[in-house]
């Protein structure tokens, strides 16, 4: 049997003693009334002066009440629980002892009625007092036995037949009362012990949860810092790679530059997928539900993945539909894109079929493949991050196992339930259930891709304290014919802006990192520079931060945000767009109602359309 920890034993004892002293005042008042009524009755009825002697003795012990009441004023009562337990037991002995004297001093001879009255009073005091002292067994023994045994002794001393019968009844009563009192004491002690054990377990659980939460927060901070530090050099590698690709065109080494860009693009895709998960978990991707024409969405899927299916020599059949659903067009496209991409990835012969059918007020979009299939035990596992079926060696050609995790998050966010059915070795069916759009409402179509060619800005200011990033971007901008001014802090940026203004060659675009040295906010620095310039240049933020708090902050900036490592073509596209709106209407671009964040996947979607 497990031993109760000392700390719980101490708490149980403290509660027991507190229960004893809680009834002190009311019990004292009741005892004064009963004891004086009994003494006056015997003095009036029998003219016995011993009744007055007894009430004097009994009342004198009640003068010890202030010693008991001191319990409530003791500031160290929790540490002195054992002391107060002993004091209460001793007080019960004194109290019970004076009641034990009552039969010896007042019990009349040959007066059965008064004898019965005294017996009833003593046993009544015992029965009403036992529940109050039951929390501590020592107090029960100090309270009940002395007064009842005193009554039994006086009755035996009388020696009459009635007295002997009453004495026997009192003895039986005492035994039964002690048995009940012991059961009550045991039940109360067990109840208190169980309560405090549960509280201790709850406290331990809360402590473990706190430690787990702290560990999770520390892990998140570590991963965010590691992600930021990893994205910085990767961002620079991508910039240098793009610059080399431009410079080596037409030369034999150009193929090496292309392979370098492919490797960097693969890393872009992996980090972009993890960024999507961070953005979904941060709650910064709020859906804008509207009627969506499925025809355009499904055609977009065909444009995006037809080439990939052809490369694997499998069929991709997408049946277009005139149905309209209520959804966020961009998120729906991303959700379907991940399902189709996953189906193509795990299909080696046969093909992939995408259909849309109306079922009542719902629309089912199904992605069916003839691929490897999924065992029933793995149906939930495949929606977890980094889990992949039949890829124990972590073959990078099969991706990272994040696509279906994004599918689950997007389906939950959009309230489009996704279900899975599969036959191992025969194929898999993913089904999305979407609400049918109300008839008569104009349907949104996926946005047409912005042109990737146009006029680049003449002069760009870069605010970044990473020298390697500055050098890479400078090399890339040089191949594009764009003049890049670089600054590592606000002072250098102000000086660059001042010189540009004096030369009448103003800065068109400010590219600023979000986090500068010493915790300085690049966003605050760039906004001050923007506000001090007329006309204000376009502001584009670049960051390698992916923590949920950081992403929520970015969501409310209303600015274009690029996430490191930035695809060079995406950067070029952004600069062209920024240049175009800067020439026409900058305010519309910078103060749009919805913030415009860009990740590497966006460029792939644009190019696919």
From TrEMBL:
<feature type="domain" description="Histidine kinase">
    <location>
        <begin position="225"/>
        <end position="438"/>
    </location>
</feature>
<keyword id="KW-0812">Transmembrane</keyword>
<dbReference type="InterPro" id="IPR036890">
    <property type="entry name" value="HATPase_C_sf"/>
</dbReference>
<protein>
    <recommendedName>
        <fullName>histidine kinase</fullName>
        <ecNumber>2.7.13.3</ecNumber>
    </recommendedName>
</protein>
<feature type="transmembrane region" description="Helical">
    <location>
        <begin position="164"/>
        <end position="182"/>
    </location>
</feature>
<dbReference type="InterPro" id="IPR003661">
    <property type="entry name" value="HisK_dim/P_dom"/>
</dbReference>
<feature type="domain" description="Response regulatory">
    <location>
        <begin position="459"/>
        <end position="579"/>
    </location>
</feature>
<keyword id="KW-0808">Transferase</keyword>
<keyword id="KW-1133">Transmembrane helix</keyword>
<keyword id="KW-0418">Kinase</keyword>
<feature type="transmembrane region" description="Helical">
    <location>
        <begin position="114"/>
        <end position="134"/>
    </location>
</feature>
<dbReference type="InterPro" id="IPR005467">
    <property type="entry name" value="His_kinase_dom"/>
</dbReference>
<dbReference type="InterPro" id="IPR004358">
    <property type="entry name" value="Sig_transdc_His_kin-like_C"/>
</dbReference>
<dbReference type="InterPro" id="IPR036097">
    <property type="entry name" value="HisK_dim/P_sf"/>
</dbReference>
<dbReference type="GO" id="GO:0000155">
    <property type="term" value="F:phosphorelay sensor kinase activity"/>
</dbReference>
<dbReference type="InterPro" id="IPR011006">
    <property type="entry name" value="CheY-like_superfamily"/>
</dbReference>
<feature type="transmembrane region" description="Helical">
    <location>
        <begin position="140"/>
        <end position="157"/>
    </location>
</feature>
<dbReference type="Pfam" id="PF00072">
    <property type="entry name" value="Response_reg"/>
</dbReference>
<dbReference type="GO" id="GO:0009927">
    <property type="term" value="F:histidine phosphotransfer kinase activity"/>
</dbReference>
<keyword id="KW-0597">Phosphoprotein</keyword>
<dbReference type="InterPro" id="IPR001789">
    <property type="entry name" value="Sig_transdc_resp-reg_receiver"/>
</dbReference>
<keyword id="KW-0472">Membrane</keyword>
<feature type="modified residue" description="4-aspartylphosphate">
    <location>
        <position position="513"/>
    </location>
</feature>
<dbReference type="Pfam" id="PF02518">
    <property type="entry name" value="HATPase_c"/>
</dbReference>
<dbReference type="Pfam" id="PF00512">
    <property type="entry name" value="HisKA"/>
</dbReference>
<feature type="transmembrane region" description="Helical">
    <location>
        <begin position="20"/>
        <end position="44"/>
    </location>
</feature>
<dbReference type="InterPro" id="IPR003594">
    <property type="entry name" value="HATPase_dom"/>
</dbReference>
<dbReference type="GO" id="GO:0005886">
    <property type="term" value="C:plasma membrane"/>
</dbReference>
């Amino acid at each position: 049997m497990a031993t109760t920890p000392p700390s719980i034993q101490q708490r149980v004892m403290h509660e027991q003693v507190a229960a004893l002293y809680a009834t002190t005042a009311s019990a004292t008042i009741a005892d004064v009334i009963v004891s004086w009524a009994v003494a006056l009755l015997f003095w009036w009825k029998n003219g016995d002066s011993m009744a007055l002697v007894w009430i004097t003795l009994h009342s004198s012990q009640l003068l010890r009440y202030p010693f008991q009441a001191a319990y409530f004023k003791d500031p160290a009562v929790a540490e002195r629980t054992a002391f107060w337990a002993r004091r209460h037991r001793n007080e019960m002995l004194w109290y019970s002892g004076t009641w034990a004297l009552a039969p010896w001093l007042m019990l009349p001879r040959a007066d059965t009625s008064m004898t019965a009255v005294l017996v009833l009073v003593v046993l009544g005091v015992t029965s009403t007092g036992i529940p109050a002292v039951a929390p501590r067994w020592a107090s029960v023994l100090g309270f009940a036995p002395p007064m009842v045994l005193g009554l039994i002794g006086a009755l035996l001393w009388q020696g009459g037949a009635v007295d002997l019968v009453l004495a026997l009844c009192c003895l039986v009563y005492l035994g039964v009362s002690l048995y009940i009192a012991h059961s009550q004491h045991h039940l109360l002690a067990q109840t208190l012990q169980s309560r405090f054990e549960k509280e201790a377990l709850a406290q331990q659980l809360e402590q473990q949860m706190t430690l787990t939460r702290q560990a999770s927060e520390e892990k998140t901070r570590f991963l965010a810092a590691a992600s930021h530090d990893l994205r910085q050099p990767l961002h620079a590698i991508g910039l240098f790679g793009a610059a080399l690709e431009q410079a080596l065109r037409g030369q034999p080494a150009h193929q090496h530059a292309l392979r370098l860009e492919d490797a960097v693009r693969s890393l872009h895709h992996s980090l972009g997928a993890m960024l999507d998960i961070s953005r979904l978990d941060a709650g910064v991707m709020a859906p804008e539900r509207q009627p969506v024409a499925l025809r355009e969405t499904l055609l977009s899927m065909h444009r995006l993945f037809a080439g990939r299916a052809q490369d694997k020599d499998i069929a991709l059949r997408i049946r277009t539909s005139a149905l309209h659903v209520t959804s966020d067009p961009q998120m729906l496209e991303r959700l379907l894109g991940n399902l189709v991409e996953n189906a193509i990835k795990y299909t080696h012969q046969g093909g992939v079929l995408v259909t849309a059918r109306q079922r009542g007020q719902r629309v089912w979009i199904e992605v069916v493949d003839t691929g490897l299939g999924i065992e029933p035990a793995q149906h939930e596992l495949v929606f977890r991050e980094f889990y992949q079926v039949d890829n124990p060696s972590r073959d990078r050609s099969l991706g990272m196992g994040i696509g279906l995790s994004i599918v689950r998050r997007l389906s939950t966010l959009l309230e489009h339930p996704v279900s899975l059915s599969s036959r191992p070795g025969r194929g898999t069916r993913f089904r999305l259930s979407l609400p049918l759009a109300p008839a008569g409402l104009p349907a949104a179509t996926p946005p047409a891709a912005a042109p990737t060619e146009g006029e680049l800005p003449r002069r760009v200011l870069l605010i970044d304290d990473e020298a390697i990033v500055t050098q890479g971007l400078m090399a890339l901008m040089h191949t594009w014919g764009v003049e890049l001014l670089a600054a590592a802090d606000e002072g250098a940026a102000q000086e660059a802006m001042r010189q540009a203004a004096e030369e009448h060659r103003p800065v068109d675009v400010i590219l600023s990192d979000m986090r500068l040295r010493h915790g300085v906010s690049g966003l605050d620095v760039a906004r001050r520079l923007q506000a001090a310039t007329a006309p204000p240049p376009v502001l584009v933020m670049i960051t390698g931060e992916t923590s949920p708090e950081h992403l929520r902050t970015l969501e409310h900036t209303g600015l274009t945000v690029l996430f490191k490592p930035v695809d060079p073509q995406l950067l070029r596209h952004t600069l062209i767009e920024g240049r175009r709106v800067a020439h026409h209407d900058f305010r519309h671009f910078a103060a749009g109602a919805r913030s415009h964040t860009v990740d590497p996947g966006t460029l792939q979607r644009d190019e696919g359309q």
